[in-house]
Amino acid sequence: MTTTPVAGRATETVAARATDLSKIYGQGETQVVALDRVSVDFRQAEFTAIMGPSGSGKSTLMHCVAGLDTFSSGSVRIGETELGSLKDKQLTKLRRDKIGFIFQAFNLLPTLTALENITLPMDIAGRKPDKQWLDRVIEMVGLRDRLGHRPSQLSGGQQQRVAVARALASRPDIIFGDEPTGNLDSRSGAEVLGFLRNSVRELGQTVVMVTHDPVAAAYADRVVFLADGRIVDEMYRPTAENVLDFLKQFDAKGRTS
Amino acid sequence: MFRTALRNVLAHKARLLMTVLAVMLGVAFVSGTLVFTNTISDAFQKSSAKGFDQVDVAVRAKYQEDKGNTVGKTPELTQAMLDRSARVPGAADAIGVVSGFTAIADKDGKLIGGGFRSEGGNYWGGKDPRYPLKDGSAPHGANQVAIDADTARRAGYKVGDTVRISVDGPVLKPVISGIFTTDDGNVAAGGSLALFDTATAQKLFGKAGTYDEIDVKAASGTSQTALKTSLDGALGTRLVETTTGKRLADDQAQQISSSMSGLKQGLLVFAGIALFVGTFIIANTFTMLVAQRTKELALLRAVGASRRQVTRSVLIEAFVVGAVAGVTGLVAGIGIGAALRSLMNTLGATVPDGPLVITPGTVASALAVGVVITMLAAWLPGRRAAKIPPVAAMSSLHAKATTKSLVLRNTLGALFSAAGVATVLAATSMNGSDGQAPMGLGAVLLIIGVFILTPLLSRPLIAAAAPVLRVFGVSGKLARQNSVRNPRRTAATASALMIGLTLITGMTVMAGSLQKSIDKMASSAIRADYVVSMANGNELSPDVDKKVSATDGVTATSPLRNVYSRIDGTGESLTGVTGSAIGQLTDLKLDSGTFEVGGAQAVVDKETAKSHGWRAGSSFTAHYEDGRSSRLTVSGVYEGNELIRGILLDDSVVTPHVKDPGDMQVLVKTAHGASDATKDRLEKALGSNPAIKVQDKKDLSNSIAQTFTLILNMVYGLLAMAVVVAVLGVINTLAMSVFERSQEIGMLRAIGLDRKSVKRMVRLESLVISLFGGVLGIGLGVFFGWAAGELLGTKMPTYELVLPWARMAVFLLLAATVGVLAALWPARRAARLNMLSAIKSD
């Protein structure tokens, strides 16, 4: 993994790749295709947003690529590792060592302090955190004076910053965010997204985020649009207006077809 | 509201399961006890009623009470009285009844029924209507006996066999002349009955020429009461009393049910403990359910439900749970009752046949106990539910289980505990029985105090376990934090276990210490090599002492002969001993005077001396049952103990005044000390009588230990129920915690905690809670055991506290096992949690 700051978009190293990824629930009449032969690359040091209407499969795509959910066919690779052949134990280890998560509902452990929450993945792995890196992450999210607080003593925005720091602290190959700003007011949301973008720009982190908010998507380097389990389009260097326009247009198309 | 409550019960079936089980176990215990005791007392009553068929009126001697210095006595029922009874108008026939202890040995020489319920009597004339012969003929002369059919069947005896029989002395070997059937209540209950002809029975039981009872049969057409009136006229009412057969049967029934009620109450106490422990679980469950349903309940409030309606909906839920538990508990209890009866039968204590008795009272109390206990325990959570503000419906967050400060609780707990400890300590410095009530009160206060304080205690005690838990990495750390996360819940769960372990440990400490002290007393006070006694605690005939002292190698013997007398207007038991030998046979600590027993010299224990105001040198007069008296001098005052206490004097002084002397024990000293050969010789000298025990000091210790082990095991068995209920509580709490924390567990799984570690986390939390309860329980138990011992120590000079370290380790291990077992299912559930749905659910 590279720590050299990378400006702008994309070296060509792929952090995660889905190939012909399908996820089908149920059988026969009640069969629901959540993902329909999706192929997508997430390049290193790139901030990707996945968008789409509800039911489009955007969360499912993220869960499958992140090793949280199983898929029906196709392949998913994180770095060089093929996920399809991994057992639960190996998948768990992969998530622990290679992947970081940020959830919508913060998902911090209320019994741990902010610092303990941040180092939790390394605690689980039984590793000592890299002190310098940790300091840098903490500095970046601005939590220096809140480290001894418990989640209940922090605001929503602060809690999500803890979650961002937790995802960054173990220097994973890739971070997945599931509507990371969904529960935040716009100011806190902007802060969190700023940190995520900075982590990509300054730390060379790879981030993939599911969102339905065009403003959030505008922080990304690239937006992937999903509908009915398929990738329908993608957009580089998005702005909120562009994304909104696209969605409107797409919505209209969806209605007429 | 009712419908909402019912829906809730159905929706939370799985979560209420443990609660139902906990209540059900308690109810099953209660109803099982009731069914069992009702069934056997009914069976005994029916069978004993049959036993009085042959008796219309019974004539018994009227005990003449002690008066002043006159020893009370029982007048004799003479042959003349019998003849007169048979001749009164309306009497068809009169039977003279003689009875006494008679043990029968089986073919291996062992006592049938262990010497308990072994009775003997007389077969009246050539054909006794009470005992129809099944086989053979009536017993005649000293060499014949008839035995009951059940005993004959059990031991495999036939007419013509020689049996070994023991009354109170050397063994007898009569021939079985006949086998009879009987409705005798004792036989129905698994006892044995041996009958001799009347003269032999009178001689064996030391009642030559007299009877214990005269049973009169009414001529046809004469009522029992009419017969009683005419008997009263003929015999007078000063020396004898007459009772109708019906009255006898009623009295017997009364007596049986009152003796059963002792057993019943004893069992119900333990059922009560199990139920009490159950209330913690119920309260915990409902607290958790209410916390989990905050939003739902707030919604009800928001749409217009009143506080009372919310409370009521929780109580209705509790009612349904209690009713289900009551009904299932009742069914299980009936099963337990039936199982207990057959268990008793296989253990050899025959219970007369009869239907299983399930009274409406049993059904009502099972249901009432289930419903009332559950509703009571759910009352507080119900009130708390009512306090949820309607606005909570809008908040997306879980309500905190309770954020109320523990300050008030801790203050209250500290006050209770301090009062409890102070009262218990004050009680320990009191004298024997005076201290009992304060000690009980103090114990209750302390238990309540500790229970209130458990949330506070949980933090430091669990923190103490941190170094151990750190070994388990993240799982250990999370487990520790989870276990102190909701101190009230942890406390209630641990308390349930604490109560059982407090009782178990307290009992063990007391029993161990008592056993040690009794053992010490028996061995330190006795110099004799052997103690000879009757297996069932009856008195030995003076023959035994004679036989033993004539045995080879025996250098000194003394009986401990019980003689009742009146001294200064109060009743005193004198112990007749062989004055010249008693000094060699005992090692009694002399308080004052000299230890001299012989002639008019007697030694008296401290307590007796104190009660009469005697000192060494004092004189007193003992009045005997024959109306005579002797003037005695206190030569010395000694420290009494369980085995030897009271007034010791030479048996040659007292024996002439007693009609039928009996010895509690015979102490034996031999030339070469205790050895198998000597013991063998002694046993042979007594005709290898199975009813007589020859014990050396080691045997004595063993039999003391055996008694304590038996009692302790019974108590363990009964308290096991409370522990089982506590296990259900731990399972319940863990399952609920896992459910409440599913989002967290999902997150942990997502960021890389594997299934094994999740399992370990839950298991360690369970272990921590259980060990917390275990440590508290064992600590309290030791304290109570110590305190009770201090109280006993005032009465027993040899009392010494014995801390059963090994047992305590076992109990701690038991607590740990409880923790591991209770976590099995919740840990599996936690590990199998679907990550994605867990993360999303809020």
Defining traits:
heterodimer, A: about 260 residues, alpha/beta, six-stranded mixed beta sheet, 8 helices, 10 strands, about 35% helix, globular, B: about 850 residues, alpha+beta, ten-stranded mixed beta sheet, 26 helices
Short summary of the structure?
With 257 residues, chain A is an alpha/beta fold. Chain A contains eight helices and ten strands. Helices cover 37% and strands 25% of the residues of chain A.
Describe the structure.
The complex is a heterodimer of chains A (257) and B (842). By secondary structure, chain A is an alpha/beta fold. Helix content of chain A is 37%, strand content 25%. In chain A, the strands form 2 sheets. Chain A has a 6-stranded mixed β-sheet, with helices on both faces. In chain A, strands 2-1-4-5 form a 4-stranded antiparallel β-sheet, with helices on one face. The longest helix of chain A is centred in the last third of the chain and has 18 residues, at 186-203. Chain A is globular and about 55 Å long. Chain A starts with 13 loop residues before the first strand and ends with a helix. Residues 1-11 of chain A have low confidence and may be disordered. By secondary structure, chain B is α+β, with helices and mostly antiparallel strands. Chain B is 57% helix and 15% strand. In chain B, strands 15, 16, 17, 18, 19, 20, 21, 22, 23 and 24 form a 10-stranded mixed β-sheet that branches. In chain B, strands 4-6-11-8-10-7 form a 6-stranded mixed β-sheet. In chain B, α13 crosses α16 (487-525). Classes of the chains: A alpha/beta (257), B alpha+beta (842). Chains A and B meet through α2, β6 and α3 of A and α15, α23 and α26 of B.
